[in-house]
Amino acid sequence: MENGEQRSAASVRAVEFGVAAVIFLFGALVVFDSYRIGARWGEDGPQAGYFPLYVGLLTCFSATVIFVRAMRDSVLAAESFVSRDELKKILTVLVPTVVYVSLISYLGFYVASTAYIAYFMWHLGKYPWIKIVPVAVGVSAAFFLTFEVWFQVPLPKGPLEAALGLN
Question: Where are the extended beta strands (E) located within 14-162?
Fold first, then answer.
């Protein structure tokens, strides 16, 4: 490796294959479900899945074109899509976000949000706890006032809210 060059975590070709696979699976799901609900021309016109079936087929065809183009272009195999250092930075944000979203159903929106904000302030911002606690709790309190009190839109609650009688 030359000075300043980073090791690649994924080539453009690999990403193209992955995107093509996801798009194809989505299109196949649309085709399957359209066929399930009826994709023929009925006595009174098209059934509910008639037009979505063709959209799904077009989506699958588009994914196949992406796959074939990536397969035929050898330059894409050598071209880096993301370096390992860049991927590490992305995962530093992505993994905690996935954990946060999955914890909302167990802890509730407000407790999960408080923990999420506190984690990022501590881990990435390197703030002291004396600053972290008031900001994390204050933002969640502002969310509570905004959604629950003013807009009267209930958000998922967890055991803490139930213990406080806020369910």
Answer: 41-42, 45-46, 80-83
